[in-house]
């Protein structure tokens, strides 16, 4: 663990995200809640990094901090070499939420065009980008449908298309497939890998599913709760080209076992402390 | 269930209807043939008792209902109370109407009849049955017209006084209600958006709005007349005061209706306040705003009519109602009430139609899940 984190910390390459001693404390009437404590992490361009851990471990909070939806209370965090706020204003990332959050009064194509409208793209460019991203997520033919006319999986694909439409290099995904059934999830996972290979984006992916994390990631960040902190960073040895049945190989299972071990270690710590 | 597939309720209604018809036939015997159509209705109604042996088509009940109503209206004496057995005809045809509507709605529910078209028949029958009962009771029981005129008298007065009614409608609805409604709703919407942006305004304006909504309209109407004169301007001012607050409160609530994720999304795009308002919060507030528009459509008419009680040129629905009561021209008052009811319903209906078009996406309109 220390080996991997120090190795990435020393790299002076084009770090997309660099967190140093990052901490975030929510003050509540019931006393402070430490959501993140002493997080050190560097994410390189083109990485697919999964954050895994039990609920309350701060994985979503960390993602929201990168997105400037939460402000850290200690340490430093840079996104593309800028502060998170500057990065947000520069439209450095696309964010996919747990729920699709498509606006029900807009058709699918208008939903995908929403960020383009806000960012002031011309009508012609909007149409061209909407068409391209809808093809990318296999939604062509559903342009004129309303979100509530689509299945949950298709809605989530549309929300991914919306995050991709303005072509930010960084994609932040917060349990995007958490509410979907296993079959749809498998399908979307393999599509996401293809999409990642094609677009060469950097992806931060929050999940609570071990197979999903191992299948998708080049690196897996294992987190544990109270206070939210990183307990292990696992470099995946799997090849970048991953068919779905790679999940039965010994290599895959070995990584999954290490993730599980890391989660268990964090968990027993939690039980000991509570 | 060999009671010819009627429910207990329908069976009881059928017994009541045929029983009343049979009693009517018996009581009309001393004076047979004086009103042939009514005797036919009594005989057929009593004969409908055969449903104990074999089922009767629901449209036959409908025909009996119609026959009873027509026979009764034709038989009503021009003056004086009606003979006692007429009341049995009223009970019988009312029971047949109820039975018919019961069976009709059951048939629509079961899918034997299409929903469109037949669904409208039921409220129409209900309304007509009320009018027939009103006519028969007021004329049959010799109710003084000052207390309650029969609908036929109101209708006749309506036709004779269309000029007055139209002038009153223009004065009250076109000149007072519509401008007041538009100004009040737009002002409420604009202030709500301002309040939403400024915590200072929220602290300052909302209590004043609350206070305004608590003002009794009876109290402010005469003051508005002193401020804005006798003509429609003072009525429009009352309407503004009445419609402003529902719009303000509903819009303020509606602007907070967008979910946290939907707002976070706008934040991740670095959208400015105006963009967030126009592309997210105002559309999300749509159902709330239309709610206020619908509430206000009826409030506005009430406000304008009541305001006219406190001084007005010699035209207007409220003026006509207050002077009509004084002159005991009660049928004209009822005609004005009918105009107000129709205008108010139509106004509400138009707003509701627009709402269906604009907030088509809301689960309450499209009838789906959230």
Automatic annotation (TrEMBL), chain A:
<dbReference type="InterPro" id="IPR003439">
    <property type="entry name" value="ABC_transporter-like_ATP-bd"/>
</dbReference>
<dbReference type="GO" id="GO:0016887">
    <property type="term" value="F:ATP hydrolysis activity"/>
</dbReference>
<feature type="domain" description="ABC transporter">
    <location>
        <begin position="17"/>
        <end position="250"/>
    </location>
</feature>
<dbReference type="GO" id="GO:0005524">
    <property type="term" value="F:ATP binding"/>
</dbReference>
<dbReference type="InterPro" id="IPR027417">
    <property type="entry name" value="P-loop_NTPase"/>
</dbReference>
<keyword id="KW-0813">Transport</keyword>
<dbReference type="InterPro" id="IPR050166">
    <property type="entry name" value="ABC_transporter_ATP-bind"/>
</dbReference>
<keyword id="KW-0067">ATP-binding</keyword>
<comment type="similarity">
    <text>Belongs to the ABC transporter superfamily.</text>
</comment>
<dbReference type="InterPro" id="IPR017871">
    <property type="entry name" value="ABC_transporter-like_CS"/>
</dbReference>
<dbReference type="Pfam" id="PF00005">
    <property type="entry name" value="ABC_tran"/>
</dbReference>
<keyword id="KW-0547">Nucleotide-binding</keyword>
<dbReference type="InterPro" id="IPR003593">
    <property type="entry name" value="AAA+_ATPase"/>
</dbReference>
<protein>
    <submittedName>
        <fullName>ATP-binding cassette domain-containing protein</fullName>
    </submittedName>
</protein>
Automatic annotation (TrEMBL), chain B:
<feature type="domain" description="ABC transmembrane type-1">
    <location>
        <begin position="186"/>
        <end position="358"/>
    </location>
</feature>
<dbReference type="GO" id="GO:0055085">
    <property type="term" value="P:transmembrane transport"/>
</dbReference>
<feature type="transmembrane region" description="Helical">
    <location>
        <begin position="58"/>
        <end position="76"/>
    </location>
</feature>
<feature type="transmembrane region" description="Helical">
    <location>
        <begin position="82"/>
        <end position="101"/>
    </location>
</feature>
<feature type="transmembrane region" description="Helical">
    <location>
        <begin position="236"/>
        <end position="258"/>
    </location>
</feature>
<feature type="transmembrane region" description="Helical">
    <location>
        <begin position="178"/>
        <end position="196"/>
    </location>
</feature>
<dbReference type="Pfam" id="PF00528">
    <property type="entry name" value="BPD_transp_1"/>
</dbReference>
<dbReference type="GO" id="GO:0005886">
    <property type="term" value="C:plasma membrane"/>
</dbReference>
<feature type="transmembrane region" description="Helical">
    <location>
        <begin position="299"/>
        <end position="321"/>
    </location>
</feature>
<feature type="transmembrane region" description="Helical">
    <location>
        <begin position="208"/>
        <end position="230"/>
    </location>
</feature>
<protein>
    <submittedName>
        <fullName>ABC transporter permease subunit</fullName>
    </submittedName>
</protein>
<feature type="transmembrane region" description="Helical">
    <location>
        <begin position="333"/>
        <end position="354"/>
    </location>
</feature>
<dbReference type="InterPro" id="IPR035906">
    <property type="entry name" value="MetI-like_sf"/>
</dbReference>
<keyword id="KW-0813">Transport</keyword>
<keyword id="KW-1003">Cell membrane</keyword>
<dbReference type="InterPro" id="IPR000515">
    <property type="entry name" value="MetI-like"/>
</dbReference>
<feature type="transmembrane region" description="Helical">
    <location>
        <begin position="113"/>
        <end position="134"/>
    </location>
</feature>
<keyword id="KW-0812">Transmembrane</keyword>
<keyword id="KW-0472">Membrane</keyword>
<keyword id="KW-1133">Transmembrane helix</keyword>
<feature type="transmembrane region" description="Helical">
    <location>
        <begin position="34"/>
        <end position="53"/>
    </location>
</feature>
């Amino acid at each position: 663990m220390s080996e991997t984190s120090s190795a990435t910390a020393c790299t002076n390459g084009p770090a997309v995200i660099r967190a140093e001693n990052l901490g975030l404390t929510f003050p509540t009437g019931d006393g402070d809640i430490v959501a993140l404590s002493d997080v050190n992490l560097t994410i390189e361009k083109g990485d697919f990094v999964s954050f895994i851990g039990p609920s309350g471990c701060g994985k979503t909070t960390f993602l929201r901090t990168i997105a400037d939806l939460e402000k850290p209370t200690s340490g430093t965090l840079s996104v593309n070499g800028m502060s998170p706020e500057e990065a947000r204003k520069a439209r450095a990332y696309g964010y996919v939420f747990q729920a699709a959050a498509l606006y029900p009064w807009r058709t699918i194509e208008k939903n995908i065009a929403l960020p383009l409208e806000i960012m002031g793209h011309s009508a012609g460019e909007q149409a061209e980008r909407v068409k391209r991203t809808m093809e990318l997520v296999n939604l062509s033919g559903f342009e004129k449908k309303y979100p509530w006319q689509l299945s949950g999986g298709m809605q989530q694909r549309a929300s991914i298309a919306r995050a991709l439409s303005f072509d930010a290099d960084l994609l932040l995904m917060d349990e995007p497939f958490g509410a979907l059934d296993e079959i749809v999830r498998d399908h979307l996972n393999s599509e996401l890998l293809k999409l990642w290979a094609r677009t060469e984006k950097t992806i931060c992916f929050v999940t609570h599913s071990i197979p999903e994390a191992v299948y998708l990631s080049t690196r897996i960040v294992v987190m544990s709760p109270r206070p939210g902190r990183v307990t292990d960073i696992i470099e995946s040895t799997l090849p970048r080209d991953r068919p779905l049945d790679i999940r039965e190989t010994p290599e895959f299972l070995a990584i999954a076992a290490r993730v599980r071990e890391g989660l268990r270690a964090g968990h027993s710590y939690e039980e000991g402390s509570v | 269930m060999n009671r010819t597939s009627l429910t207990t309720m329908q069976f009881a209604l059928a017994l009541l209807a045929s029983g009343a018809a049979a009693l009517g036939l018996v009581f009309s015997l001393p004076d047979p043939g004086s009103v042939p159509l009514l005797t036919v209705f009594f005989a057929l109604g009593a004969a409908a008792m055969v449903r104990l042996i074999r089922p009767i088509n629901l449209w036959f009940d409908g025909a009996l209902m119609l026959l009873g109503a027509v026979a009764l209206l034709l038989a009503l004496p021009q003056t004086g109370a009606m003979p006692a057995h007429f009341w049995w005809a009223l009970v019988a045809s009312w029971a047949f109407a109820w039975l018919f509507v019961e069976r009709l709605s059951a048939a629509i529910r079961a899918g034997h009849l299409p929903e469109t078209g037949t669904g409208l028949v039921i409220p129409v029958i209900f309304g007509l049955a009320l009018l027939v009962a009103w006519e028969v009771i007021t004329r049959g029981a010799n109710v003084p017209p000052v207390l309650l005129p029969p609908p036929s008298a109101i209708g006749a007065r309506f036709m004779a006084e269309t000029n007055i009614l139209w002038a009153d409608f223009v004065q009250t609805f076109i000149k007072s209600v519509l401008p007041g409604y538009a100004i009040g709703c737009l002002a409420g919407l604009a202030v709500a958006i301002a309040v939403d942006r400024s915590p200072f305004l929220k602290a300052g304006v909302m209590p004043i709005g609350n206070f305004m909504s608590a003002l009794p309209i009876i109290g402010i109407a005469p003051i508005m007349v002193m401020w804005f004169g006798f003509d429609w301007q003072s009525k429009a001012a009352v309407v503004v005061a009445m419609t402003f607050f529902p719009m303000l409160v509903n819009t303020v609530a509606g602007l907070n209706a967008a979910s946290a994720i939907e707002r976070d999304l706008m934040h991740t795009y670095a959208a400015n306040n105006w963009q967030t308002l126009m592309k997210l919060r105002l559309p999300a507030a749509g159902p709330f705003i239309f709610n206020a528009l619908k509430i206000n459509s009826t409030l506005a008419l009430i406000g304008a009519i009541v305001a006219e009680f406190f001084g007005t040129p010699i035209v207007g629905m409220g003026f006509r109602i207050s002077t009509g009561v004084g002159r005991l021209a009660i049928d004209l008052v009822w005609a004005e009430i009918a105009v107000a009811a129709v205008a108010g319903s139509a106004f509400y209906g138009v707003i509701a139609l627009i709402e269906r078009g604009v907030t088509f996406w809301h689960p309450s309109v499209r009838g789906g899940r959230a």
